[in-house]
Amino acid sequence: MRRVALLILLLLAGCSVAGGGDEEGKTTVTFRLWDDQVATAYQQSFAAFEKAHPDIKVTVQLVPWADYWTKLPADIAAGTAADIFWTNTSNFGLYADNNQLLPVDVDSGWTPSVVELYTRNGKLWGVPQLWDSIALFYNKDLVSNAGVDPATLAWDPAAPTDTLRAAARKLTVDSAGKTVGQAGFNPGKIQVYGLNAAFDQQGIMWDFVGSNGGTWQSGDTFTFADQPKTVQALQYVVDLINKEHVAPPAADTNTNGDKTLQLFTQGKLALFQSGPYQLKSVQEGAGFAWGLAPMLKGPAGRVGVVHGVAAVASAKTAHPDATREVLNWIGTADGVKPIAEGGYAFPGVTAAQPAFVDYWKKQGVDLQPFLDSAAGTTFPAPVGPRVGAGGTAYTPILQQVFLGQVGVAEGLRKAQDAGNEAMKG
Q1: What's the CATH number of domain 135-305+386-422, 3.30.450.40, 3.40.50.1820, 3.40.50.1110, 3.40.190.10?
Q2: H helical segments located in 59-162
């Protein structure tokens, strides 16, 4: 999801930061998330909720992604967490296993894949709010000028070349107008890159692993270093950066998760594989014609990450009845309608999904590649009670791999060991 600037928005003034504040005889329920754009939709949603529930007020806390996962555990431990808060699959398991969340009843109208992601030990712990899959954004002028059809691109690490590498070489241009392979091409002065190969786990890394038939974990344990197909896929991605020179250097992308998005909207990147969470940013930032194509195809086909965000309720809420009323509301089509109609994200309530598709259709953007990706073979995002800590531990090691400072096989082994050790608690 988008990383946003630090800001805390309250829908109504005079409310407590955590739940439990009452004002004028009304019960205050607090709701925390990390996305500023979707926060706008929730403001609209809760305004409608309050009209139907005049005895309940809902306040929204917006905490930036960079601070979210350090602030949340501290607040939960102190008993000052919001009554309801967003979570992802990397972090909810720890709270569910420690009885810090309220279980919720399954609704048949919710996106099944997201329900599955947040089901643990036989119970559902969150109300699906939005989901995303992976597709390929492309700059129409750049691919047309290079004679590249983005819908047909495939990669094969066992072959000396493939359609993806060939296309990326045509699309990568230096300051003198030379492409990769042409005499005089200067990899130190690239003006336009072919593809956003980078340490982007959701948009790139796990999708290449899955599309090569690799895996990332078994149960709650990382096993990626033990999987030859996983090692092979990561070697391919790293080579696109350091050997083929068709992707931005990791020195830039490791330190700025939005770097490839920025390059794409600036017209300096031809192919940008990512999720629908980038649609608004591309729409607002790109001054050129762009489109969507199916995600890149590997030896195992097109296998992409389908991830989802859920809203969970704190077991320590001082107002469980009011909190459940709000949870019930955001589990309805009316409750998530502003998210869909505003074009912010695929909603977790299936009945509201057409509104999101229609919004982008009116903008001239066909979301079918995202729908096809979600309906096809998918790759699971990591789950487990301490998988977030494991990911934090292995990240700097894998960043060294992408920089070319550590070999892929060696780096994956070190990263796996560090991640699994961190998950022991």
Answers
A1: 3.40.190.10
A2: 65-78, 92-97, 112-117, 140-146
Contacts of 409 (CB under 8 A, 6+ apart): 225, 231, 235
E strands of 220-296, at which residues?
221-222, 269-274, 290-293
123, containing H or E segment: strand 123-124
For residue 317, give every residue at least 6 positions away whose Cβ sits within 8 Å of its Cβ, in sequence order, or none.
19, 20, 29, 83, 102, 323
Question: Which amino acid does the sequence have at 317?
Answer: T
Please state, in angstroms and rounded to a whole number, the distance separating the CA atoms of residues 67 and 58.
Answer: 22
pLDDT beyond 80 at 253: yes
CATH number of 22-133+307-379: 3.40.190.10
**Three-state secondary structure call for residue 334:** helix
pLDDT digits (tens, 9 = 90+) for 282-320: 999 999 999 999 999 999 999 999 999 999 999 999 999
Question: Any residues with CB less than 8 A from the CB of 293 and at least 6 apart, and which?
Answer: 135, 136, 138, 150, 151, 153, 369
CB 230 within 8 A of CB 206: no
Both structure tokens of 305? 């990450």
Rounded to two decimals, the pTM is 0.90
